[in-house]
Amino acid sequence: MEAPRDTAELKPEPVMLERALAVLGADSKHTVMIGDSTNDVRAAQAAGIRACAVGYGYGNRERVSALQPDFYCETPHDLIDLW
């Protein structure tokens, strides 16, 4: 788990995501970032990770959708249908 206190670089910079990939030994091509904000989607895109924007949470749906995430889920239940 990466937290803002672990780095000086916050989203949308990809540093936290890149570090998480390295620690987990994960491949960005097989990873999906789920987030509710434009910074979440931008960070995923900058890290080469597929982005799944969600319509619940604190983010603005229209702004998040405008960034053309790879996936969009309106509810938590919609996430199940992706996998």
Total helical segments: 4
Low-confidence runs of at least 5 consecutive residues? none
Radius of gyration from the alpha-carbon trace, in angstroms: 12 Å
Number of separate domains: 1
For this structure, the CATH topology is: Rossmann fold
Strand fraction equals 5-15%
The CATH superfamily is known as HAD superfamily/HAD-like
CATH class: Alpha Beta
Strand line-up of the largest beta sheet = 1-2-3
Describe the overall structure.
The protein is 40% helix and 14% strand. The protein has 83 residues and is an alpha/beta fold. It has a single domain, classed as HAD superfamily/HAD-like (Rossmann fold), CATH 3.40.50. A 3-stranded parallel beta sheet has the order 1-2-3, with helices on both faces. Strand 1 (32-35), helix 2 and strand 2 (50-54) form a beta-alpha-beta unit. The protein is globular. The mean pLDDT is 89.
In short:
This protein is α/β, with parallel strands linked by helices and 83 residues long. It contains 4 helices and 3 strands; from the N terminus they run αβαβαβα.
List the helices and strands and how they pair.
Elements: H1 15-24, E1 32-35, H2 38-47, E2 50-54, H3 61-66, E3 71-73, H4 76-82
Parallel strand pairs: 1-2, 2-3
Supply database-style keywords.
83 residues; alpha/beta; Rossmann fold; 4 helices; 14% strand; globular
